Amino acid sequence: MSPSKVSAITWDTFHNTVDGKPRGGKEKHRGVNPATGEELWEVPIANQQDVDDAVVSAQKAFETWSEVPFEKRKETIKKFKDHYMNYVDEMTDLLCAETGKPRQVAEMETKGVAGFFDYHLALSLPEDREEDDEKVMLTRYTPLGVVGAICPWNFPIILSLGKAIPALLTGNTVIIKPSPFTPYTTLKVVELAQEIFAPGVIQAVGGSDKLGPMLTTHADIAKISFTGSIATGKKVMAAAAGTLKRVTLELGGNDASIVLPDVDVKKVAPELVMGAFQNSGQVCVATKRIYIHQDIYDEMLKEMVAFVKTIKTGAPGSNALLGPVQNKMQYEKVQTFFKDSKDKGYKFAVGEPDVAQGKGFYIQPTIIDNPPNDSRIITEEPFGPIVPTQPWTDEEEVIRRANNTNAGLGACVWGKDVERAERIGKRLQAGSVFVNSWEKPTPQAVFGGHKESGIGGEWGKEGIKAYCNAHVLHTYKSK
Ligand code: NAD
Q1: d(CA 150, ligand 1 centre) in Å
Q2: How many Cα neighbours within 13 Å face the side chain of 210?
Q3: pTM, whole model, 2 decimals?
Q4: Could you tell me the distance, in angstroms and rounded to a whole number, from the CA of residue 42 to the centre of ligand 1?
Q5: For a Cys staple, 468 with which of 106, 127, 141, 180, CB 3.0–4.6 Å?
Q6: What's the pLDDT tens digit per position in 381-401?
Q7: Among the options 98, 109, 191, 250, which is catalytic?
Q8: What are phi and psi of 457, to 5 degrees?
Q9: Which of 209, 217, 326 gets mutated to test ligand 1 (max ligand atoms within 8 A of its CB)?
Q10: Closest residue (by CA) to atom 21 of ligand 1?
């Protein structure tokens, strides 16, 4: 039985969780509601002592949790899922407050995380047995120890539980560090988890960006699973080298979407737009460059512009499709792409060169029509609601253009001729390529980037190995 909805949890006080207990702090900070620009609740800033205490507790808990039989661990994780689902409405309120997402969009995350639980709860641990005349080789996958999960602000629940679930399932203990911009839902999820797990199995330390290095350099953390920007990912990898930690790096993207000339323009136009502007463009695998065949370029752009004009941007309580940019820093960064495009004289197919200022960090979805290949909007990831389109005619050339980037997270190809679309898709240098769909990561498939978009991957059958050592037992037959 999982605890029913009776816990004394409050939704307006927040703390870190260390060794099964609430942990405050002398220093505090506050997130900001991006829909209003107003400050939210106080949260403690964890320090080195908090991290050290969490690691000691996690190591102790690992001794027991890693020995709990796999099926029993699943039962406990299932109880955690049920307990979390009891509070899904409160979690949605909180997610709306900290991210500004429209409620129906926030629910895709708060409710959608159930799919991550369910998929992992149906997995078995991989095992391989090879035998020859003299020996048997048994390969098993054993837990690493204490995992540090460092998370970004765009999907605080999915991205933290997307690490914690496979880490716990495989017998690790986990310390989650939420983004300072979105600490609230993560701290509550981990607080709820304390009613299910023994102290130290799952903990949360939030605070400032100073905390990340405390985790990445800690001698007793075995692995860092990091999701965030390419720039920070490089720092994580450098820091982890000191203790030869395992790392999984889920980093930024600059996804290309290639549109073949045979598509149904009216059907595909809104999908291209959604691929680019889902979550206001704040998705690692959002479409960030759109290559449309010359024969349909004008018609497609016209349809996309018409669809963009129907999109409502607004606060969580409204019936908007898109919310604000999540934080001021990102809001200002996205505006540099508007300014650059305006200063260089690029054509705004839809959207205004000057972002309207007001309460909240709102930016209207904007399309830049055929900027040059070396423009910032083509070469860099804005991570906001602005996307470029370019025409193409030659298949080889557009594949080269799509691959001409340091990133390699996702990509899309659209075409009635599915064989041709798949043929192109197979040549795109990206971890997840979608044919006739915009980017929709799912727990069933391993998710990871090529090139500077990451190292390793998570989710899917392959993903649970990211939380394990391979352990091979070579048993020679008795002589
Ligand atoms: P970020 O790199 O600024 O921060 C990510 C996390 O790292 C935060 O928790 C932050 O506090 C922490 N951090 C900061 N400095 C650190 C350091 N020196 N060492 C360790 N941790 C440190 O990224 P962000 O702005 O939160 O997120 C946006 C970026 O994340 C985008 O580039 C986006 O594409 C990428 N992203 C990737 C994926 C993916 O799965 N590949 C998913 C979501 C977002």
Answers
A1: 8
A2: 10
A3: 0.97
A4: 22
A5: 141
A6: 999 999 999 999 999 999 999
A7: 250
A8: -165, 165
A9: 209
A10: 212
pLDDT in tens, 190-230: 999 999 999 999 999 999 999 999 999 999 999 999 999 99
Ranges of H-type helices in 66-149: 70-86, 88-99, 103-110, 113-121
Q: Measuring from atom 40 of ligand 1, which residue has the nearest CA?
A: 250
pLDDT, residue 284, reads 98
Residue ranges lining ligand 1, Cβ < 6 Å:
150-154, 177, 179-180, 209, 212-213, 216, 227-229, 232, 235-236, 250-253, 284, 381, 383, 409, 449, 454
Nearest-CA neighbor of 382 among 269, 229, 250? 229
Q: Ligand 1: which of 16, 29, 150 to mutate, judged by most atoms within 8 Å of the beta carbon?
A: 150
Token couple for 472? 């091979």
- DSSP states of 211-279 as a string? HHHHHHT-TT--EEEEES-HHHHHHHHHHHHTTT-EEEEE----EEEEE-TTS-HHHHHHHHHHHHHGG
Q: Classify residue 67 by burial, with Cβ atoms within 10 Å: 0-12, 13-18, 19+.
A: exposed
Convert 193-212 to b/e letters by CB count within 10 Å (16 or more is b): bbebbbbbbbbbbbbeeebb
Looking from the CA of residue 215, the nearest atom of ligand 1 is 20
Both structure tokens of 286: 């959002």
**What is the per-residue pLDDT for 2?**
53
How many angstroms separate the CA atoms of 86 and 115, rounded? Answer: 15
Pairing of β 468-476 and β 454-455: unpaired
Structure tokens at 445: 């498939």
Low-confidence residues of the chain, pLDDT below 70? Answer: 1-3, 6
- Nearest residue CA, atom 11 of ligand 1? 209
Q: What angle do CA 238, 244, 250 make, to 5 degrees?
A: 55
The minimum-distance atom of ligand 1 relative to the CA of 231 is 2
What is the pairing mode between strands 16-18 and 21-23? antiparallel
For 368, the token pair is: 């830049």
- Closest C-alpha residue for ligand 1 atom 14: 209
- Which pLDDT does position 3 carry in this prediction? 64
Assess whether 397 carries a catalytic annotation.
no
**Residue appearing with tokens 């799509």:** 402
Query: Distance between CA 341 and CA 203 in Å, rounded?
Result: 44
Angular region, 291: left φ>0, alpha ψ -120 to 50, beta rest: beta
